[in-house]
Known about the structure:
Blueprint: H1 5-13, E1 17-26, E2 32-43, E3 47-49, H2 55-60, H3 64-78, E4 87-91, H4 102-112, E5 120-125, H5 127-130, H6 133-146, E6 149-155, H7 161-165, E7 172-175, H8 177-182, H9 187-202, E8 206-209, H10 215-224, E9 228-229, E10 238-239, H11 243-248
Parallel strand pairs: 2-4, 4-5, 5-6, 6-7, 7-8, 8-9
Antiparallel strand pairs: 1-2, 1-9, 1-10, 2-3
Helix pairs in contact: 3-4
Bound molecules: ligand C2E and magnesium ion (3 copies).
One magnesium ion is lined by residues 36, 91, 123, 153.
Amino acid sequence: MLISNDDVRRGIENDEFVPFFQPLVTLRTGELAGFEVLARWHHPTAGVLSPDRFIPIAEQNGWIDALTKRLMQKAFEAGKLIPEPLTLAFNVSPLQLHDLDLPKRIQSAAEDLGFPLQRIVIEVTESAVVDNVERAQTISNELKALGCKIALDDFGTGYSSLLHLQSLPFDELKVDRSFVGSMIQRRESRKIVAAVVGLGQSLGLTTVAEGIETREQAEMLLWLGCELGQGWLFGRPIPAEDLPTTVEMPREKISFNHSPGLWGGLA
Ligand code: C2E
Ligand code: MG
Ligand code: MG
Ligand code: MG
């Protein structure tokens, strides 16, 4: 089904967009560390739609702020189901990182609904940093002053990644899932992940791997020193009503059942 601009506008007017929540876990202990908020559209006829179907349309038509605001409100409302010290991570669009009002808007949404700013992570992709570095710096510094953390999302897939790494005050580095997905099969991917995790560590950043689908990937990432993990192995994105059971679910500890030798370490 082809989505038109009018469909998205109607969806926003009818408040059909909801946050889903995907678990992030501490690889070493298996403990839940927080959730990433991922937008979903409860479309009246097409079912639940993914962000790639509507985020670009919302961006192009200037509706992304309204959409983000509503998602944040709903996520902060559900935040009552997310105990301390678990975090909530939000994705912001490149355009929003150029909007000087962004920090104030996040602050008022969080304060209105009583979610602590210290437990908020803002995920930005590399393209967000490109056109106006100074403004992105101003906004990032304000977000940090409020207590929020900042993550560089999908690291390794944009351009001039390394340049952007030094331009903003990042707290976290998220390794793109394309590398994680192929790291067991491909020696090159494995080496890239190892290098990215090492880079993050040497810059003092929390390293996060996304798209972990197998135990073997989790074990290898842990062995490489990656701190946090996210992926279907630990849990798919879920609606707010499933948060209580997910928060209470015991998680399996990842241990070195396989010695690195089985997959050859980094060789
Ligand atoms: P992202 O921020 O990199 O989010 C991770 C994506 O990987 C999500 O896709 C998630 O469902 C998917 N994923 C997580 N674990 C696995 C796994 O083990 N295997 C596989 N195959 N996929 C996994 P999703 O939800 O379709 O979101 C796609 C992108 O849309 C996000 O990528 C993010 O850039 C963007 N997005 C999502 N929600 C929002 C939003 O509220 N605002 C903005 N501006 N962008 C959003
Ligand atoms: Mg993200
Ligand atoms: Mg990502
Ligand atoms: Mg991604």
